[in-house]
Amino acid sequence: MTRSTRRALAPLAAGLLATPALVRADTYPSKPIRIVVPYAPGGTTDITARLLGEQLGKRLGQSVVIENKPGANSIIGAGSVASSPADGSSLVMVIGAHAANATLFAGRLPFDPVKDFAPVSHVVSAPLILAGSGKSPVTSVPELLEAAKKNPGGLNYGSSGVGAAAHLTMEDLQARTGTRMTHVPYRGTQPALQDLLAGNIAAMFDTYSTLKPQIDAGSIRALGISSRERAGFAPGIPTFAEAGIADFVSSTWCLLLAPAATPAAIVQRLSVESAAIVRDPGMAAKLQAMGFEVVGSDPEQAATFLNAEVERWGRVIRAANVVVE
Q1: 308, burial (CB in 10 Å: exposed 0-12, middle 13-18, buried 19+)
Q2: What does the pLDDT read at residue 187?
Q3: DSSP calls for 240-281
Q4: Which H or E run contains 135?
Q5: Chain segment 284-310, per-residue pLDDT in tens
Q6: H helix or E strand, kind and range, residue 73
Q7: 220-225/117-133 β-pairing
Q8: Quick one: pLDDT at residue 19?
Q9: Runs of H (alpha helix) within the chain
Q10: What's the pLDDT tens digit per position in 245-258?
Q11: What are the angstrom distances between the C-alpha of 29 and each of 63, 64, 66, 270?
Q12: Beta bridge partner(s), residue 158
């Protein structure tokens, strides 16, 4: 973590020591709600938050504002909510990086990614697609793995950054298959995708919504999808099980969190409303067309899921010796 990042995070650590605001659940919500997205506008997290926020505002009878606070692998945005009053007025939509940060930045975070939040709902998941360059002769997962085994470290793969779900999923795949490729981290998905299109990297994991235009155009190839079964939104993409890699399931996801001391009744209200929104047939169809699997869990299920993801990515990070400076 850089010195400038530490300076930016210092106020968040101080804010966590403040006494949480008292709030009556039966008057909630009495003021506007903000959903912090710890990334720049336009990505899958931002899109999901805006779709949810628009409908949440209607159901709660209160305005819901989306606030983008990118930086430090989602730490700045998540930290701003962890240190906010626990009155249900500040929420954050996190993805897999939040779970990975517990290990990547162990002992250096201004908050605890689990203890300093109250999980509201696991909103959606998005299985990751392994894509290969259209300039490469590789057309399947077995062919990519064979090429990697023949030339250990000789093939490059890209990701949106160290610790991203796309990065850690590839590390997991290599560990399971005894292959070794060279990681090229980028500052976001789009630069990585551009190098995949140019043939400068051999492969990358990302979401269907991100990769779909290039897959449809034939510029890149969808080699496999990290779901247990073929996805309804992309039935032509084979699973890793079909490639002989059993139980290789990985996804990015959107999890709605509130500050830890938020009253249980408010957390429950937000959870019920969020689940109803994403499970609405019209909204569900829209999300599924974008490559999402609708979840809409309750707070207990969301907490169990977050703990499992922290443990899972922790194992991958330690096994691959992933380090963030």
Answers
A1: exposed
A2: 82
A3: TGGGT-TT---EEEEEEEEETTS-HHHHHHHHHHHHHHHHSH
A4: none
A5: 999 999 999 999 999 999 999 999 999
A6: none
A7: antiparallel
A8: 39
A9: 3-15, 44-60, 75-82, 96-104, 141-150, 165-177, 189-198, 208-217, 264-279, 281-289, 299-320
A10: 999 999 999 999 99
A11: 10, 10, 16, 10
A12: 184, 204
Which one, of 62, 53, 147, lies nearest residue 93 by Cα? 53
Q: Average model confidence (pLDDT) for the chain?
A: 92
Question: What is the DSSP secondary-structure string of 136-163?
Answer: SS--SHHHHHHHHHHSTTTSEEEESSTT
DSSP 8-state class, residue 115: T
pLDDT at 241 over 50: yes
The reply to whether omega before 29 is within 30° of 0 (cis) is yes
Phi/psi-derived region of residue 321, left when phi > 0, alpha when psi is between -120 and 50, beta in every other case: left
Instruction: With both helix axes pointing from N to C terminus, report the angle between 96-104 and 299-320 in degrees, rounded to the nearest 10.
Output: 50
Residue identified by tokens 């945005």 is 77
Q: Look up the pTM and report it.
A: 0.87
Average pLDDT rounded to a whole number, residues 158-162: 90
How many Cα atoms within 13 Å fall on the side-chain side of residue 57?
Answer: 15
pLDDT at 144 over 80: yes
